[in-house]
Amino acid sequence: MLLFQGSHVLDIAAEFKTMRGGTRTPTPNSTVGQSLVLSVPLGNRLLQALLAESRSLTARLVTCLINGLLWMLFFVTLGIWRQGLQLLR
């Protein structure tokens, strides 16, 4: 499963503190620009998910580049082969 597929994750100011319970925000009404406070286990899980997604995207990019290079090599080779056939005529 790919996380965050097709979305953009904005930069979030985050403070990782050791605390009991789940997540909490510094104020009852969180607004843009305020920091996000997470428990250490949740912060670690979030970080691991983002790293896994980054590795997945990198692997897909490399695969696409390799496939593109292989197709380009195929067509260049095909062109050279056709030129060789024309020279033999």
Automatic annotation (TrEMBL):
Keyword annotations: Membrane, Transmembrane, Transmembrane helix
UniProt superkingdom: Eukaryota
Transmembrane segments: 57-81
Entry keyword Transmembrane: yes
Protein name, as recorded: Flocculation protein FLO11-like
